[in-house]
């Protein structure tokens, strides 16, 4: 293939390197020029084009990418059609991705013109997720190079999605004096959520003293009726002869590995009993945050063998994100005084007021003041360090109503997609040193600055780790204050999913603060707004 300026009289069959105009007609990049195209370009006064001229043994980028993808052997993979020199490959099932790294390296060493990129080894994937992509860099590549890649692919599986199986799991939780039943109950909820993502289910639970004999007896009973047994010790393993590994052996099982080079997750125990897998979960597995337990569990549920050597090889990449609620963090981070923990308010004011039938409820007047300005003023009058107002629908009118207030504005052009888009736009503007963000709805006229301060005070007393939620007579309401540890999860929300989903899914401690009727009064309808003292404006 030759690349560069080509006289227009010699350009038939060449592939354009750049979009090129011929009068009102425009040829896109990578367009192969026909005789008619040449005539149109010459008529427009174009003397030469920058293009690629293919040799007889060259394959166009799409044909080359498609041939390479067709030569690959794989499982549970869907191959998409070639486009712009690329073939994307997607998971045909949810499971764990495995890849022959040697084959990938060999393909990428053939020539820089041919590339393949994949997800990491043992990455958990969802059905439909892209797992690999073949990309041809230039507009064409020699057929001999494609043939070399095809030979590398011959006879071996290059990658696969190992589909999750619907396993049944029995759980043992040991008990010591002082351990709260609420901790054990939360552990069950977190474990059920972990299994649900792969189609598994928790079928039974046994709570025993933290002693070898009762744990061994419970493991034996649960192994008979389940595919896997998971043991949560009330006390972390401190020796390879401690309660959990000793109980596996007392029951007649084998300890495959005690301890793993993944943090959080160091204290995991893996064993077998009557042909079933037994996992001694590390303490961090009581949290929904990713830890070493997830790595082992996902592979087992996908039907993959996990050996002592496999676990020993998990150290590279095994330093995971710290879990803020961990009893003993790796390093004690310098903590600001609780009274100094900063909280920003994210005021959501982007909605369309669809139930109002036309007028924007946020511009309704309460005592002569637009509702959105009244709510923002109360936020500014609280102990919050800053106030961010997310606008979208009728943004100019809403912003005009806020004129003169010291608020930070966040635009949400995707407001019609649902609540999640506004949450993400607001959280993205929260100050880097803020410990949390209070989500305040713009249409709650009964929430005062004092109410907001009550939530902030409760958050500070928790050390900045708990979710704090307004309530009225025992029923949850709004606002909701989210700790910084949830900000990454907010970025993954889609559609009309709000903060309540995060509170329920992430398993953090929740503190309800009674603030009275204001926690449950919003003004979604004309009747509710007028009943609260508002006057709609056209």
Automatic annotation (TrEMBL):
Under the heading CDD domains, the entry gives: GT_2_like_f (cd04182), MoeA_like (cd03522)
Residues covered by the MobA-like NTP transferase domain: 346-505
Which keywords does this chain's UniProt record carry?
A: Magnesium
User: What InterPro entries has UniProt attached to this entry?
Assistant: Bifunc_Mopterin-bd (IPR012184), MoaB/Mog-like_dom_sf (IPR036425), MobA-like_NTP_Trfase (IPR025877), Nucleotide-diphossugar_trans (IPR029044)
Top-rank taxon:
Bacteria
Pfam families for this protein: NTP_transf_3
Indicate what this protein is called per its UniProt record: Molybdopterin-binding/glycosyltransferase family 2 protein
Taxonomy-wise, where does this protein's organism fall, top ranks first? Answer: Bacteria, Pseudomonadati, Pseudomonadota, Alphaproteobacteria, Hyphomicrobiales
């Amino acid at each position: 293939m030759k690349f560069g300026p080509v006289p227009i009289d010699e350009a038939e069959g060449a592939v354009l390197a750049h979009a090129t105009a011929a009068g009102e007609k425009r040829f896109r990049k990578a367009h192969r020029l026909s005789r008619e195209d040449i005539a149109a370009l010459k008529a427009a006064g174009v003397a030469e084009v920058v293009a690629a001229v293919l040799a007889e043994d060259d394959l166009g980028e799409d044909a080359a990418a498609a041939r390479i993808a067709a030569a690959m052997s794989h499982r549970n993979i869907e191959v998409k059609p070639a486009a712009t020199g690329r073939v994307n490959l997607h998971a045909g099932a949810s499971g764990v991705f495995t890849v022959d790294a040697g084959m990938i390296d060999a393909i990428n060493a053939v020539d820089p013109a041919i590339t393949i990129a994949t997800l990491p080894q043992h990455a958990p994937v969802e059905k439909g997720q892209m797992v690999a992509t073949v990309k041809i860099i230039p507009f064409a590549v020699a057929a001999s190079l494609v043939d070399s890649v095809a030979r590398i692919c011959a006879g071996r599986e290059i990658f696969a999605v190992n589909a999750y199986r619907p396993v049944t799991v029995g759980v043992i939780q040991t008990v010591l004096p002082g351990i709260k039943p609420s901790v054990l109950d939360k552990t069950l909820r977190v474990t059920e959520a972990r299994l649900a993502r792969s189609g598994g289910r928790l079928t039974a639970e046994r709570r025993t003293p933290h002693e070898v004999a009762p744990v061994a007896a419970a493991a034996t009973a649960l192994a008979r009726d389940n595919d896997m047994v998971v043991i949560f010790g009330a006390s972390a393993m401190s020796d390879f002869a401690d309660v959990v590994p000793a109980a596996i052996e007392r029951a007649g099982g084998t300890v495959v590995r005690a301890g793993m080079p993944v943090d959080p997750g160091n204290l995991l125990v893996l064993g077998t009993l009557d042909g079933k897998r037994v996992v001694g979960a590390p303490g961090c597995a009581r949290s929904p945050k990713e830890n070493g337990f997830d790595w082992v569990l996902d592979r087992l549920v996908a039907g993959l063998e996990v050996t002592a050597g496999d676990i020993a090889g998990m150290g590279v990449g095994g330093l995971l994100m710290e879990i803020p609620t961990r009893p003993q963090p790796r390093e004690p981070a310098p903590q600001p005084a609780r009274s100094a923990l900063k909280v920003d308010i994210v005021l959501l004011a982007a909605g369309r007021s669809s139930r109002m039938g036309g007028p924007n409820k946020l511009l309704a007047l309460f005592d002569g003041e637009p509702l959105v300005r009244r709510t923002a003023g109360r936020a500014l009058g609280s102990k919050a360090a800053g106030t961010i107002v997310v606008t979208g629908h009728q943004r100019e009118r809403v912003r005009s109503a806020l004129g003169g207030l010291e608020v930070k504005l966040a635009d949400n052009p995707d407001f019609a997609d649902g609540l999640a888009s506004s949450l993400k736009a607001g959280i993205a503007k929260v100050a880097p040193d803020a410990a949390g963000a209070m989500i305040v709805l713009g249409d709650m006229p009964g929430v005062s600055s004092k109410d907001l301060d009550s939530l902030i005070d409760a958050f500070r007393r928790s050390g900045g780790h708990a979710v704090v939620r307004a309530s009225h007579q025992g029923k949850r309401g709004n606002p909701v204050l989210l700790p910084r540890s949830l900000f990454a999860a907010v970025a993954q929300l889609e559609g009309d999913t709000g903060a309540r989903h995060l509170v329920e899914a992430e398993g953090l401690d929740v503190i309800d603060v009674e603030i009275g009727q204001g926690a449950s009064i919003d003004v979604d309808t004309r009747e509710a707004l007028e009943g609260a003292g508002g006057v709609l404006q056209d």
